[in-house]
Amino acid sequence: MKQILYSAILLTGCALSCLADEAAAPTLDWLTGCWQSEDGTSREVWSQSEDGYFFGYALVLNEGKVVFFEQMRIDPGAAPTFQAYPRGAGPSGFPAVAVTNASVTFANPDHDYPQKIKYTREGNALNAVISLIDDTQQGTFNFMPCPAGAS
Question: Which of 55, 88, 137, 139 is the most buried (most CB within 10 A)?
Answer without folding.
Answer: 55
